Amino acid sequence: MQLPFKFYPQQPIAGDKLIVTYNNGILLDSLDKEIYLKFGFGDEFVESKVYETKMIKKNGEYLAVVPLLKSGFLFIAFKDNFGNSDDNNETFYRIGIKSKE
Fold this sequence. Notes:
Elements: E1 5-8, E2 17-22, E3 35-42, E4 51-54, E5 56-58, E6 61-67, E7 72-80, E8 85-86, E9 93-97
Antiparallel strand pairs: 1-2, 2-6, 3-4, 3-7, 5-6, 7-8, 7-9
């Protein structure tokens, strides 16, 4: 399965700043819109602990930088200003974050 986004660094560590690029998702169409990154940290997704930030549009892609506050998982989803979501069928996408050695 191809993800609708890419991220750097590929093997994130707690304390890193993660660059998330939304470049291949269902929200990308010809409409001029705003896209937001929704994200949360932990071993399991908790809706009440979700943050949201507006992504920056650059060359047809949307970028955001997320400070990785702790190890475990980073849960992410995307939404636009029209109420549409790209959230992996309501389960959020999950990125593993290693702890600092």
